[in-house]
Design goal:
It is a single chain. By secondary structure, the protein is an alpha/beta fold. It has a domain of 194 residues: Vaccinia Virus protein VP39 (Rossmann fold, 3-Layer(aba) Sandwich), CATH 3.40.50. The chain is 45% helix and 21% strand. It has a 7-stranded mixed sheet. Helix 6 packs across helix 10 and helix 8 crosses helix 9. The structure holds S-adenosylmethionine.
């Protein structure tokens, strides 16, 4: 690690806590965009009634709650995240869905505070690449899994396959502003977007025969203004970069982004932004 890992962990914890209300606000859009990934991951672990499933870096627990219905009535899902704010949102979702076999735990994924071989399967959608030491998190995942238990995970593919993040970052850099998703040398959404790297991380943690695929996704927005608000609310990197600017600088970034989004914008003003994620399953 060539960066200050402790400082990164503190910054990341703070940033995700701050992002939690935005994730709750935009939950429906995030859920619709990411649903194919949740379904793939849950199918990959094939949850059985009576099992215990752990979701790491769960955010609002979208993926784990899909598994909750499949392990019911005797089985349970532990929805975990480092952010208490995210888990509050997850708890409210579980109540609204009437799920009574979901537990919520504040857990750091690099040191999972659970006993050895205590869960049957682990789910983690878009979490490992954000950790200071993803290898440690994967080793911890294997430690808490029962022998032959599966981990199913998603990490974003490389930035070039993800215009939803590349274009906002480009709008900043074209105006001489650093920052935005996918920039800098710290862990971030795209740092594991390489199949060979992902495979070796999974194997180095002791898992066998990882199977890796990619899934194409489409994020839909009603208008440019709605996309702008979503981006500010959901991406801490973009939020921080924009909040440091003057009004005229913000206007310039908005104008550049609007232009960059041209090819993805329909006559009615609606916007469709493609993306691509890697998904993997492996056995402990
Ligand atoms: C991109 S969001 C994904 C949320 C959710 N899994 C989803 O797919 O909607 C990343 C989540 O990872 C959590 N996270 C990041 N680093 C973590 C760590 N070291 N331990 C536990 N959670 C972490 C954040 O708090 C945040 O909720």
């Amino acid at each position: 690690m060539s960066f200050d890992a402790e400082r990164y962990r503190d910054d990341s914890a703070r940033a995700w806590e701050a992002a939690a209300p935005g994730w709750v606000r935009h939950h429906a859009r995030i859920g619709a965009w990411a649903a194919p990934v949740a379904h793939w991951l849950v199918e990959a672990i094939s949850p059985q009634p009576g099992q215990t499933v752990l979701e790491l870096a769960a955010g609002l627990g979208e993926t784990g709650m899909l598994a909750a219905e499949l392990v019911a009535p005797a089985g349970r899902v532990i929805v975990s995240d480092q952010s208490a704010g995210m888990l509050d949102g997850a708890r409210r979702r579980a109540e609204a869905l009437g799920l009574d076999n979901v537990e919520f735990e504040v857990l750091g994924a690099e040191w999972i505070d659970l006993p050895l071989a205590s869960v049957d399967a682990v789910l983690c959608r878009w979490g490992y690449m954000l950790m200071a030491d993803p290898g440690a998190a994967l080793s911890e995942t294997r430690r808490v899994l029962r022998p032959s238990g599966r981990v199913a995970l998603a990490v974003w593919d490389a930035l070039e396959h993800n215009p939803w993040a590349r274009l906002p970052t480009l709008a900043l850099s074209e105006n001489g502003i650093a920052g935005g998703p996918g920039s800098g040398d710290r862990p971030g959404p795209f740092t594991l977007g390489d199949r060979a790297l992902l495979r070796s991380l999974i194997e180095d943690a002791g898992f066998t025969e990882p199977h890796i695929e990619d899934i194409a996704l489409m994020r839909r927005h009603e208008s440019f203004d709605e996309l702008w608000e979503f981006q500010l609310d959901v991406s801490q990197a973009f939020h921080e970069a924009v909040m440091s600017l003057t009004e005229p600088e913000i206007a310039a970034v908005r104008a550049t982004l609007r232009e960059l989004l041209g090819p993805h914008t329909a006559a009615a003003g609606t916007i469709e932004l493609p993306g691509r994620t890697l998904v993997a399953v492996a056995e402990a």
